[in-house]
Amino acid sequence: MREIRRWPAAELAGRIKKREIKAGEAAAAYLEQLRTAEPELNSFITVDEEGAMAQADRIQALVDRGEDAGPLAGVPVAIKDNLCTRGLGTTCASRMLADFVPFYEATAVERLRAAGAVILGKTNMDEFAMGSTSETSAFGPVKNPWNTAHVPGGSSGGSCAAVAAGQSLCALGSDTGGSIRQPSSYCGVVGLKPTYGTVSRWGLVAYASSLDQIGPIARNVEDCALLLQAISGGDRRDSTCLGREDTDFAAGLTEDVRGLRIGIVSDYFDQGLDEQVASAVRRAAGILQRQGALVEETALSLAEYAVPAYYTIACAEASSNLSRFDGVKYGYRAGAQEGLHAMYRRTRTEGFGTEVKRRIVLGSFVLSSGYYEAYYEKALRVKALIVKAFDEALSRFDLLLGPVSPTTAPLLGNTGENPLQMYLSDIYTVSVNLAGLPAISLPCGLDAEGLPIGLQLIGRRFGEQTILRAARAYEKACGGFALSPMAERGQEAAGSEEGRKRDEKSPDGTEGKGGMPA
Amino acid sequence: MKKQYETVIGLEVHIELATRTKIFCGCSTAFGSAPNTHVCPVCAGMPGSLPVLNRRVVEYAMAVGLATNCRISPLCRFDRKNYFYPDNPQNYQISQLYLPICRDGHIDIETETGTKSIGIHEIHMEEDAGKLTHDDWAGETNVDFNRSGVPLIEVVSEPDMRSADEVIAYLDKLRLIAQYLGASDCKLQEGSMRADVNLSVRPAGSDVLGTRTEMKNLNSFKAITRAVENERERQIEILEAGGRVVQETRRWDDNKERSYPMRSKEDAKDYRYFPEPDLPPVMISREWIESVKKRQPELRDQKKKRYVSQYGLPAYDADILTSDKKLADLFEETLAYCSNPKKVSNWLMVETIRLAREHGIGIDQVDFSPANLGKLICLQDKGTINGTVAKEIFAVIFADDVDPQKYVEEHGLLAVTDEEAVRRAVVQAMEANPQSVADYLSGKKKAMGFLVGQTMRAMGGRADPALVNRLVSEALDEAAAK
User: Is B277 within 8 Å of chain A by CB?
Assistant: First the structure.
């Protein structure tokens, strides 16, 4: 059991295809860890044991018949609960959709299944992906597997916690303003937000359509690339999906960063950044430099305008995207009402949580007549300037480097009263969404409390290959990334029978030799 | 004494496009199916669904824009119009506000005082909403999303019209343009063409616009005429009484022949328009415009001119034949079987229109094959049947689309061309009516017509009229010679 959970995706799929183990064994191993850790973490909203085992059987049948079972054959994946899954509840962590079961499937999920992945279940998140702590869920907050007194980050907190705790080998999240990168940073896993238009948004319940992008969360860079490769590419059902053909992300994965020009975004190291985070990130930059990258400081103007511009645009779109939840067609409907408007009002008052309502009100306000020009249009102009600033910086550098978040994971229950504080913690991530660029979050050490710190690499439009190459080089240089102690604990608890197979661990060093740089 | 007032009218016309599938999904646009049978996640507003623009919608909008002399925007965009209503599954409508597809066009209409140009401010594309039905018995309201996502264009005119007649002339012109393009069937009653009337009045000679109202729920040309007259009177009365017209939307009740306020400007909705983030801008290249232009069919005005110049038809005929696309199509298709344009025109202008009225159907519902009308005209030309029989057969063709040749054979309707039989009938007619013969001989040439009629009657109406004429004339000449 415990060995199975040490293998990265390519190795696991390879062993299943070589019939060294059965797909069902892999699924069972993860489901067991999922159940073990779940009471402490609350990272899942729906666990689909039956569906997972059935898919594992299908994969096994393909393998047994000698057919191609796909690049992710038998690889367990957890899906953020804002991605529609056919026949499986999709709640967006909201009371509004608590009983909603889609009859259609997100393209990304469809592609994962086609690649042979086994869907374990749907992960907890901030309600409708609105939040940075995974505390706004109607199904209770998610805990950080490194220290359950802390949040896992958000909004893809469930997906990141699940990977960090070894409940799933990898996961899908969505990133509108940092929702993959920030929880990946807090949970010490690898999370990538692709270039806007790389992954089809069909079936992703929209928060802010012009910024939303689905991306992979994994425990190492190669798995991240494999997962991204499986879900990328054109889709006729999403007009904003670009139909990229350069999606062979795993094959092009080398660790050579010699001559790569990396700019450290100096503005990100100004005030407000935790010192431990700052030094860990600078240390990471040093590691890349020693690998042969040309690293220097660079300014990126407008950083301070990114957060207000982001919240204006994202909330404006959200106010419209979420108007369909009205109790008429599906989802929650408040009990017997006198008249249509009372039904609308009660349904939306009771169905949405506070943070969602706050953003709907904010978004409706900035779009309303008399304020549109002053807020929404101005935000669009800021966005255009941010795009320009990135273009300029990325004409001089192949990658930009900085922190993911100003701090490590805060304590649970600390952000409720001060949403503005929470919004400001998105300062290093939101501008990447506004510019539509790809960026990755990589573990780069622990703070004094033992909480993970994240390093962000931002690439050019369509620059995922370069990001992954640098990420891989960094990962190798620091001997791989460790999962949370909880994942290890689960493995110990799983017994020592397979202990003798330990030497078969992957070359990526996922055995957990404390891969964090010292 | 009452002041003189001028009425100023602008129209917003919604036209449902004749695409097979909806504007943002692959669902059928077919009308009249069981509720919610043409729906999918997109047009039902399900979470996670996304719109994909139907290219044909853009092409139809371009076609109408070109035919109305508009500028086609090289880049246009969709915007969201946000409002809550249960027939609107997303609670926003995808429409175009900031960058519509067509701008600055005009249509020429014929008025009593000559040709007048009516400006077109813009044409934009949007999606239709679903339909609510109220079940009073069960006390519930149901929603049908079959119509949700059916493509529409909205044609917004400048306030260039001054009377109900001009409004009707404009609408009729617009309807014909869309019909000729195949862009829409434009049926007011079925709602595939809907007009909202913006109307204000001002003292004659003034160049300042008065406060306008917007009139909705106008389901026929007659209702539009009545509503325009009524609203003009209402506003003048208010002004004469020293009052002020309130800017508001009003609803026309055609049964009561009056309108009611729906909502005033003060409680006008704030639609919070913003660019639709799920759809990239639509880039319209010069090549695309050219290819649509190339496929543009002949429009009414061109056709009318051609019918006169090419077929030598009177202008009157050309006007009627082109007044409905169906009629013009029938005309041209029948010509393939019969080379006499004027005869074809007569059958269509007179008999076809008469029969359609008798059957209580619109010209667009007329359904007989041009081949059968063509054969009928040939049969008559060859003298195989006479005019009376031809009319009789045409009524059957109109109703059941029969082959006239077969019908004539099966029903024994061939014209009698046997000279001996006709001659016997002529002799009988003359013997039975000596007075008429005497009248003729005394110079009353009209009496011949009576004898011809009597002969035809004796032949059961089936004799070849030319033959009867000749034989009667010969017999009378003979009698005169005696």
Answer: yes
